[in-house]
Amino acid sequence: MKKFVATFAKIGVSVALLGYLGWQAANATRLAPTPDDPNHKIYILPELLAGPKDWGMLALALLAVLAAVMITILRWHMLLRTLGLQFTAQESLRAGFVGYLFNLLPLGLAGADAVKAGFLIHRNPSRKTEAIATVVIDRIIGLYALLVMAGVAALQLDVSQLSFRPETAERDRAATMLFCSVAQYVALGSTIAFGIMLIPGVTELKLWDKLEHLPGVGLVFKKLVAAMRTYRQSTPRVLLAIAMSFCVHTLYVSMVFFAGRGLCSPQPALATHFAFVPISMVAGALPIGAFEATLNGLYYVFSPENTPAIQGFLIALTYRVLQISVATIGVFYYFTGRQEVKQVMAEQAEAKAVA
User: Fold this and answer.
1) Is residue 257 one of the residues assigned to a domain?
2) How many CA atoms within 13 Å lie on the side-chain side of 129?
3) With 90 as the cut, is the pLDDT of residue 302 above it?
4) Which of 6, 120, 178, 350 has an alpha carbon 20 to 30 Å from 86's alpha carbon atom?
């Protein structure tokens, strides 16, 4: 019952956000005076949709998304092999793309992380904790790189050079300065925490060993601590995973830029994209609609004055179309091995029932 309520609430939030943004886009107008009517207005959305497109740029945006997904999957593969888990690169690609497909399902039946962990546990049934640890560490490393990228971009951003719209200039300038400060502090704090964990003596502290004596969860903590120490001893691989994450996020920033160019509308400079796209991607971890709302708002703030107010929303929708296009690879993997996929999902359901 709780799972049903949570899923229903998630879908409700997504529908509400997308519905509101869609309503805004459908009703957005601009002044287009005519000899007979100086106050004549036209709807912006049909104008943008019917306008010229640079299909080459849109193709580059698609390739950027595909490359980002591929690097993300290979990063996870490297991390799981570091723990000695049995999983080939081909199996990682299959699990990654099927997970990417499931992540786009409207009912939220399973996220990409759950599917990847399920495949890995199916292959390594006696190492469930380590399998889950690889997914968690992979997510943490990706998020860390995203926060650092946003912080560095915010540090380099000169707010005084931004051209805010006169009617909202004071509010937008204050919000942008607050956003830059928060991004910088979060990036600094996460870097300090990450650096501490890489100090040789920290992971060997006896404090970690005491966690294995906790009732009920001691064995889980013992395996997690062992995984943490293994990764500490493989610092070069962890640093490589961070570098791969920066590459992934750079590709997503480029995707937004290419999509904007593809829609042939005024847009911020490429360097400016690094200041707001990472934050939008963080919002992408929330229910569908949060990414669209965040990108739409930030794109408007950072864009030239003649950029349509709904441009960010259209780019976000373009990104969803690109995601669906890449997810077709997951469809191929699903149908070529659907019996195993069904078995993995059944094992996950049974494990939840037991828990």
Assistant:
1) yes
2) 12
3) no
4) 350
